[in-house]
Amino acid sequence: MMSSGIDLVNRDPNNINDHVKVCFEDVLAEPEGGHSFDCVWSNSHMCFECCKNCWYKLLTLFFGICIAMYWGYEFAVITFWHVWIYTPALRVYMIECGFLQKFWHSCLQCYLRPLFEACGFCFSGIRVTNSTE
């Protein structure tokens, strides 16, 4: 069933909460050789599911809308900061780094390259020989 573009049947289409296992079989299990009476097990199942569903519905009734509003606000703030602050700041940083990279490259080419070329010329005449005596 769809209501204003929201799927009311499959409420986790991206499997975000696959790790949340809340069914009776995911929470309670009796090993072989340790079984309770069948009536206890089936009534435990019924009570577990009933309480889980009732409490979940009550909690979402009282708190779900407020929590959804909070998370909507939180993601709006995150989006705002990324769109208006972080991304432009990162762009400025990248522009400045490009300038600094060119500046340091020029400095190295102008000052250190001649120095090292001169050192290389001075030391190019050195000959090393190994003698074994």
Automatic annotation (TrEMBL):
Belongs to the caveolin family. It is a peripheral membrane protein. The keyword Transmembrane helix applies. The chain crosses the membrane at residues 54-73. It comes from Plakobranchus ocellatus. It is found in: Cell membrane; Golgi apparatus membrane; Membrane, Caveola. Keywords: Cell membrane, Golgi apparatus, Membrane, Transmembrane, Transmembrane helix. Its main location: membrane. InterPro entries: Caveolin. GO terms for molecular function: molecular adaptor activity. It comes from the Eukaryota. May act as a scaffolding protein within caveolar membranes. Interacts directly with G-protein alpha subunits and can functionally regulate their activity. GO terms for biological process: caveola assembly. Pfam families: Caveolin. This is Caveolin. GO terms for cellular component: caveola; Golgi membrane.
